[in-house]
Write a structure and sequence with these properties.
two-stranded antiparallel ribbon, binds zinc ion
């Protein structure tokens, strides 16, 4: 079960007190989406992953902590123009040079925009995630465990934002990789179909049929 309580925290940027929701333990019962978004119960807690100080707008998983350089960022004009705790936290991470992590926070912003039916915000948050991950790779920051997973994630994020050419290119590059894990290969082959169908909807790993143990898989290519 997800347990939610309340805690009063002193903001590390402005020193004002505010009450925030805190999350207890949470079980994930359903399989995740292709872009790693967790299934329930964890799925519905996402909105609480980043907290925003109601006084100064500092947004972080824990506003009681303040990494060096954060106060200046939070007080900047550009920061205050960012909408919502997730995009604000992503901006802080970006300014601190944590591009891979910033990309994840942008993706979480996209998930929340999906839930509120705000397609334009979801699309721009996904574009931001891709951009941040690219900058991360240029700075030798990985955003998944291995390149196979990175190809799969970028394919799905591009497809969800309707960037089908980039999704197709990434998907094909991913399928060409050596030593591709079976689950990633199955996932990328399904992505090919979704891309062909111009499908931008959310898909769950539940949709991948299980391979019989030891069986040779049949492929279309
Ligand atoms: Zn504050």
């Amino acid at each position: 079960m997800t347990t939610i309580g309340e805690k009063t925290t002193c903001c590390a940027v402005c020193g004002e007190m505010s009450t925030r929701v805190i999350l207890g333990s949470s079980n994930t019962i359903e399989p995740p989406d292709f872009d790693t978004r967790p299934g329930e119960m964890l799925r519905s807690t996402i909105g609480h992953w980043v907290v925003e100080c109601p006084h100064c707008g500092y947004a972080a998983p824990d506003i009681g902590e303040r990494p060096e350089g954060v106060a200046e960022i939070v007080r900047s004009e550009e920061y205050l123009q960012k909408q919502g705790p997730f995009l604000r936290h992503a901006f802080i991470l970006e300014q601190l040079g944590h591009f891979a992590e910033a990309g994840w926070t942008a993706l979480h912003a996209a998930w929340l925009a999906d839930d509120s039916g705000d397609e334009a915000s979801a699309r721009s948050a996904r574009a931001l995630a891709i951009d941040l991950w690219k900058r991360g790779k240029a700075a030798r920051q990985n955003f998944m465990n291995n390149p196979h997973e990175e190809f799969a994630l970028v394919t799905d994020v591009c497809r969800r934002m309707g960037a089908f050419d980039e999704a197709l290119q990434t998907c094909r590059a991913g399928l060409q990789g050596d030593g591709i894990p079976p689950l990633i290969e199955d996932l990328l082959r399904l992505e090919l179909t979704f891309i062909q169908n111009r499908d931008t909807s959310c898909h769950s790993l539940q949709e991948i049929p299980e391979r019989p143990a030891g069986a040779q898989r049949v492929t279309l290519q």
